[in-house]
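Changelog-adjacent note: as of this version, every example in the card shows the full chain rather than a window. The one below runs 151 residues end to end.
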Amino acid sequence: MITVTFCTLAQSWDAARSAALFDKAVTFEPTYFYFYKYYANYLQPKWDGKEGEAAAFARKSANAIGGPEGDFLYFHIAMVVLAANNGNVDASQMDWARLQRGYQAQRDLYGVVDFDINQFALMAWRFRDRDVARPIFNEIGDKWSKEVWGN
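Full-length structure tokens:
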């Protein structure tokens, strides 16, 4: 089903059909965060969404799940939203405090990989939070992610 969710863009599905597939997917597995990430991508203005729609979707979805799992989901959806259009999305669409809780939930529940740490560092930089960014950049050291930073 994850492949099908991703293919809604490739097959130019309309909004109603895409939403129906997303709803079916999360009914089957409500906490499978990839469904949410792919649908958030679909909701970007460069595809079929409106400005701010993906950020609103992130809030609604995370609130529905609730607790640390909801914050974790918010963090992962934010990776998609904030990376859209090569990082030209207004970061203020997202809740920085909740992103921080989501990153901490990721660490506590599942651990983190270098990609996650780099993504969080990029978010801290985009939110201009030096107090959060500094220790994360120190943690990254020479393990920077070309996928996140480009070069």
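Structural remarks: Residues 2-111 form a domain with the Serine Threonine Protein Phosphatase 5, Tetratricopeptide repeat fold (CATH 1.25.40).
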